[in-house]
Amino acid sequence: MGNGSGAMFFARWLRDPRGVGSVIPSGRELAHAMARPAADAYRTPILELGGGTGTVTEAILECGLDPHDLIVLERDLQLHRHLEAKFPSVRVVRGDAARSHRVIEALGVAQVGAVVSSLPLLSMPLLTRRRILGSAFRCLGPGGFFVQFTYGPNSPIPERMQKSLGIQGRPIDRVWRNVPPATVWKYERVPTPA
Ligand SMILES: C[S@@+](CC[C@H](N)C(=O)[O-])C[C@H]1O[C@@H](n2cnc3c(N)ncnc32)[C@H](O)[C@@H]1O
Fold first, then answer.
1. 40, CA 20 to 30 Å: which among 11, 64, 66, 122?
2. Is residue 184 part of a domain?
3. 193: pLDDT confidence band, cut at 50, 70 and 90?
4. How many domains does the chain have?
5. Comparing 119 with 25, which gets the higher pLDDT?
6. Which residues lie with the beta carbon below 6 Å from any ligand 1 atom?
7. Is the Cα torsion angle 28, 31, 37, 41 positive or negative in sign?
């Protein structure tokens, strides 16, 4: 990430601290910890939520994903423009993660293999989190999963919400060298008994 990205991110944070969720973009090590599981997804495309300045986008591409197999959703107008210019071969869409199933539908995509989210879930009301997760799991085909990082000590999706959505999460990575240290969680559908 160049200094320009950091300055732009800070400017967006000043305008909307809760929506952007962090003063600085995700660090490189965290971005790679988020990207690695996506590289193992059983199918493409991969959907990234809250692309921001593109640190995680870049890491996903560095893991070898074809840019045409990546869809990035970003709500902020300026960050969306920045992502479009930086990743011309990636489908970058301006929109709300609570409607991501509509976004992929409009692109003619039936299912995605993984959703990688940098959204500031902890600063969102529970109902918004639920809508975002519900919509993401509507995008995910069988075996698909949702990856999310958090600066908090617990799952950013409360147990009760996981149960009601029929999903379960577990921490898969801890990135101590990020500022602040972050945990990466992976959420999957609870298998239904045969
Ligand atoms: C913590 S920042 C992303 C950090 C990003 N990985 C980076 O390194 O720049 C969260 C991003 O989510 C976006 N965002 C927040 N709520 C959103 C929503 N409902 N739909 C789509 N994007 C959203 C913000 O505009 C912001 O760019």
1. 122
2. yes
3. confident
4. 1
5. 119
6. 9, 19-22, 25-26, 49-50, 52-53, 55-56, 73-76, 79, 96-98, 118-120
7. negative
